[in-house]
Amino acid sequence: MVFLGRVVVLRNELRNGKLGSFHYSYNPTTGCEKVKFLIVASAHAQTIDYGANHMLDYVTSAGRSSKIHIMDRGRTHSGGKSEACFYLGRAKLSAGTLEPP
Fold it and tell me: CA 101 to CA 99: how far, in whole Å?
């Protein structure tokens, strides 16, 4: 689960006082969920961003399911802002296999 490395980085940035925001969207045509995080420097070193942490919990939990596939992309901008996207979709099964219960 390679995406967990990116989750750890985002959690560490939030723990170090940066502010996080997220945007969730769902595409009914493809059945894909997209969760986008934006982490920016905070003026308050003791800020705890519970909403972003809860959404990271959701992404981590979904990734533990054998029925969900997660692809992630991210980058850190020169100004210190970090951006990460997680795409969650139903795992593709190879021909001749049954979907797990």
Answer: 6
> What Rg, from alpha-carbon coordinates, does the chain have?
15
Q: Is the pLDDT of residue 98 over 60?
A: no
Contacts (Cβ under 8 Å, ≥6 apart) of 65 = none
Is pTM beyond 0.90? Reply is: no
Taking the CB of residue 51, how many other CB atoms lie within 10 A of it?
10
Within 10 A of 95 (CB to CB), how many other CB atoms are there?
Answer: 4
- 3-state class (DSSP) for residue 20: strand
Contact between residue 72 and residue 6 where contact means Cβ atoms under 8 Å apart: yes
Q: 34 and 27 in contact (C-beta within 8 Å)?
A: yes
Q: Give yes or no for residue 43 having a pLDDT over 70.
A: no
Dist. CA 28–CA 76, nearest whole Å: 30
